[in-house]
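This section describes the prediction task in plain terms. A model, or a person checking by hand, is given the sequence of a single protein chain and must write out its three-dimensional structure as a string of C-alpha cells. No templates, partner chains or ligands are provided. The sample shown here is typical of the held-out split.
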Amino acid sequence: MLKIIGAGLPRTGTLTLHRALSQLGFGPCYHTKEITEKLDHIERWIQAYAGQPLDPRALFAGYRATTDAPGCFFWRELVRAYPDARVILSTRDVHAWYASMRNTVLRQELLDHADDPVLAELHRLARATLDHAFGDRRDEAHLTEVFHRHNSEVCEGISADRLLVYDVREGWEPLCAFLGVNPPDTPFPWLNDTAQYVAKAQARRRSLREA
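The expected answer:
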C-alpha cells in the first residue's frame, strides 16, 4: 500500500527522491525505471492518459511509494485511493527544470528505438506521457506555465499537513522531519543529473548499434 505519493514532475529530482525514500525504508518505490520490468503496465498507463479509469491498487500492488511519471500526473486519483498517504511535491527553479527537460526527456523523444522492442515500448509510453502532460513541447513559455500550474494545483489540492514541497538540494533534514524518521548517517543520494542522463542514453544507443 502506498505511503508516499511523489507528485513532482519529471526532472525535479525524482530519481534522487526514489533512492532517498528507499534508503529511509519506504521502498519498494515505483518510478519510470520500474516499468522496464513491468511492460504490461505500459498499456494501462496509456489507456489512463486516454481517459480510461486508473486502477491504482493493481498498478502499485507491493509498492510503498511512487515518484516521477506516470504516477505524478495522476496524483488526484492516488490521494483518493490512498487517503492516509503523504504527498511530496519535488520542485526546482523553473528555468533549470526547462533546461534539463530540453536536454534530456524532450531530446530523447526524438530517438527511434524501433530496433529494440523494450525501448520501443518505453518510447511509446514516453510519447503518450509528453502528449498528455505537456502538449506543445517546442514552446518554453507554455512548458513553464504547465510547470507552475501543476505545482499550484497540487498545493491547492492537498492539505498543508499532508504535503511537503521539497527541493532535493535540501537533503535529508526536511524530508526526514516530514516522514517522522531520523536522518541516516549515509550521504544524501544525488542521481540522474543531465550529464548522467545523456551518458546513459548514449550508452544505450551504442549498445543497440553494436548488437
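For orientation: The longest strand covers residues 86-90.
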